[in-house]
Specification:
The chain is of the alpha+beta class and 645 residues long. Helices cover 29% and strands 32% of the residues.
Amino acid sequence: MGDTLEFSDIYQEVKGSWNDGRLRFGRQSVVYKSSKTGKVDSIPAAELSQAQWRRVCLGQGIKLTTSTGHIYKYDGFRDTDFEKISEYFKAHYKVELSEKELCVKGWNWGTTKFSGPLLSFEVSDSPAFEIPLASVSQCATGKNEVTLEFHQNDEAEVSLMEVRFYVPPGDTATTEEGPEPVEVFRDRVLSKADVIQATGDAVCIFKELQCLTPRGRYDIRIYPSFLHLHGKTFDYKIPYTTVLRLFLLPHKDQRQMFFMISLDPPIKQGQTRYHFLILLFSKEEDLSLSLNMTEEEVEKRYGGKLSKNMSGSLYEMVGRVMKALVNKKITVPGNFLGHSGTQCITCSYKASSGLLYPLERGFVYIHKPPVHLRFEEVSCVNFARGTTTTRSFDFEIETKQGTQFTFSSIEREEYGKLFDFVTAKKLSIKNRGFKEVNISPDSDEDQHDAYLERMKEEGKIREEANDSDDSDGESGEYDSKASASDSSAEGGDSDREKKKRPAKKAKVVKERKPRKKKPKDSGAPKRPMSAYFLWLNASRESIKAEHPGISITEISKRAGEMWRELGKEQKVEWDGKAEEAKKNYEVAMREYRESGGGSSAPSKKYFCTCFFQHLHKVLCCCSGIDLHFSHQSTFISRRQSASPS
């Protein structure tokens, strides 16, 4: 058995929706990486305490319990995977993979057990369903009822809104001495539920920070477990568990900094979802910060990452505090430098202008709307010429899910830098090797354009035709202007400029000649019918008899349906008749051609006509005399010749 076991297409349930990813069992840890968000869950092997194999909706699933009280569930395994996973757990984790049956009786009366962050409803000692308490948003009590409300997931097709539990009242003696069973139930739910309550003082407060998404100025209050944005109109509470990534990116003007926070799930305001929180800072703005904690508490909780009193640039203070509380690294630009010497590229996405940052592991666009594309989810990229001018180009990114992001209006000088970056990251370039995509800054502005050249040639031809047709009229017009300018000496500069302008030339519209249809040979044998039409001719009367008064179009429609329903054995008869008709047609056509009919060569009558027409043109051009010929077998001219010869 190898050191690792890997499984693809393994699903993890997140608030009612299934997210697929890859699961790897290693000697040191169990790692799951989501394909959608790229988030990585790592479970140290030393913390694994229990493992269960259960039949679930997506095949077989594994439930892992750690010594710290966390529970992880992964679904999508096959029945044959049980043996090798069980052996691997025994050999490397010293944990037995036990099989657990779920209750499917459908009973609604049972017992509830709180196991870490899970509420399990059991019937006859078998779990009927489990509720992750982290998904609970509110818990309310009635007389003998407890109501649980849940966080909603926009990506789930069906969402569970609430669950109500009936809790039987306790004995009178018990209730007099202690709290009611309903209150005990509620307190145990709230101890593990994801209900954000601003209890106690904030660690620190940042006043009036400029926020681009959502737009406005907010006071940011930093609490130990969540972030509170307080604005004039809206308030947002963001748990640190929803933060995926942190970005610190310089503005192109080198005077400002962007601090971007990636969120999953996003914060909501009505029907609007904000997947990114973007703050804008000035580099010149400084701050002296004092945490609302003692030095011993700061050292114990954050282990030297923060100190009680700090000072520096405002964006550095915000980044340092967020990095310590969220416990995630801050992503900064890599080695990419654009044509202007900055680490970003000016471009447009949809209808807004913004900045595109090529990072070490993905692309980030700021700011409307913000976009983050990891290299792992990129299928290919494409360089396309700009639609309005040759001074810019478009950069297209296509993801593995089929979504395309087009960043347009990128300066042509950025092409070389961006192309080298994409090549170095080993991303697939869709149009590599095509000569028509010529957007290099070394190329001339007047580069070859086949369509433009063709339009120029057609314009020259039209101008020459206009000159030849209107030569007499134009010369008379210019002579009249010249005489008028000589006679009048008080015209001034404006009159002279008007007289110098040539008259606009009328467009020449060429008449299209009607196409000549090839004459049909009435004496040739008729083409054979296909198997379908042979069957239709034989079945038409029966269709009319079954459907009296049916129209012609309905007959064709009904016949098509009947023909499709026929089996291959029934169609063999009509295929044979069609093949026989085709052979008879070929024999008849051969005999017809041998008898002189349907010859593809031009007839003598047509040949003579063409010959005399061509001879007429040549003689007229050479002698300048209008000659008219007549031929008995071709045509008879009704005009008299200009010369007796």
